[in-house]
Amino acid sequence: MDNFDVIVVGGGPAGSASAGALVRAGRRVVVLDREEFPRLKLCAGWVTPGVFKALGIEPEEYPRGLHAFDHLVVHVGGLTFRLPTRQYSVRRLEFDDFLLQRSQAAIIRHEVREIVQRDETYIIDDAYSARYLVGAGGTRCPVYRTLFRHNLQRDSRTQIAALELEFPCLWRDPRCHLWFFERCLPGYSWYVPKSNGMLNIGIGAMAEHLKQKGQHLHAHWEQLIARLCREGLLDSEPGPPSGYSYYLRASGNSARLGNALLVGDAVGVASRDLGEGIGPAIRSGLSAAESILTASPYRPHQGSGLSFDEILHNRLLRLLGRAAFRMLGITGREISLEGR
Ligand SMILES: Cc1cc2nc3c(=O)[nH]c(=O)nc-3n(C[C@H](O)[C@H](O)[C@H](O)COP(=O)(O)OP(=O)(O)OC[C@H]3O[C@@H](n4cnc5c(N)ncnc54)[C@H](O)[C@@H]3O)c2cc1C
């Protein structure tokens, strides 16, 4: 049996962040992931400046493909808003591989199936043991399933269902578009151009609301594709999308039991307004490492829990104010929300 100080299950942003901080503090860490990296991960790959800040690097230092936006194009109820803000898109295939390599932890491809706790030690599949265990395996994390399921109930009201597709495309519009509440969708759809001629399109919505309204995400997908073709953002129908679900941040989650900690999607940390999960996953991973290293309380939820807060500040209020224009019949043109 191979013994480590810490076993991290899952090499996504949450696991890599935890592993990197622990390695830097001199701990022997192994990351077990069932996938060989670089691996595909369903995600629009939108990252905020806060993500780079948490990683301690400047965006320009990121060595893989990065596409920058100096504003977002937001469509709500027939109006189009231009929201100045610096944001980025990455390919998760590249981003997660970069983070995992950068952690300098031992990386082993291994699908975790059985977790046993014996005295002060966690034993994985009779092959790996450690005093600390970090569950970073995403929504279906085996650490959650084995150790936390009965103490940490997931709230179905915070579940997001998503469909998306990333594919090579000579996109004509380099801007990020977001459509909110189209056809009563309890969520939004996106068009996110990426570097090196890649495009990501998708839809995310509150799963329970969809069900209550008798709506199907695939029907919204068809409408999104029709809209993108109509508006000249796509030339032809792309292939079929893939689906995934994850949980937004819920209050009161106890994400540490003994020396086992849950981070990222395994606990549910994504922002409540836009479902931004990468930054919160990284911050929860860093907090878990800090808790292991200093015996301080583990705080998986950092900040306000909102992305719009960070991106738009009082511009959102202006947006809502401008929505009143619609009632005056001023529609169909792009309104800029420049300034403070
Ligand atoms: C369609 C979609 C679009 C999104 N768009 C954005 C966006 O644009 N911006 C944003 O900030 N967030 C977005 N999110 C959310 C974001 O992708 C997640 O919140 C984020 O990936 C969470 O990171 P994580 O490290 O917790 O988990 P993950 O990135 O899911 O990593 C979990 C890892 O655990 C491994 N694993 C799982 N089970 C096992 C096992 N049994 N044994 C070993 N390894 C295992 C997996 O292989 C995986 O590598 C989106 C999510 C979806 C579904």
Helix and strand succession? EHEEHEEHEEEEHEEEEHHEEEHHHE
The kinds of small molecule bound in this structure are: flavin-adenine dinucleotide
Number of separate strands: 17
Write down the overall geometry: globular
CATH class of the domain at 1-45 and 91-154 and 250-304: Alpha Beta
Count of helix runs = 9
CATH architecture of the domain at 1-45 and 91-154 and 250-304: 3-Layer(bba) Sandwich
- Low-confidence runs: 327-332
Helix content: 25-40%
- Percent of residues in beta strands? 25-35%
| Class inferred from helices and paired strands | alpha/beta
Rg calc: 21 Å
Mean pLDDT: 91
**How far apart are the termini?**
59 Å
Q: Let me know the CATH homologous superfamily of the domain at 1-45 and 91-154 and 250-304.
A: FAD/NAD(P)-binding domain
Major β-sheet profile: 9 strands, mixed
List keywords for this structure.
8-stranded mixed sheet, 340 residues, 31% strand, FAD/NAD(P)-binding domain, binds flavin-adenine dinucleotide, 9 helices, 9-stranded mixed sheet, alpha/beta
What's this, in brief?
The protein has 340 residues and is an alpha/beta fold. Helices cover 27% and strands 31% of the residues. The structure holds flavin-adenine dinucleotide (FAD).
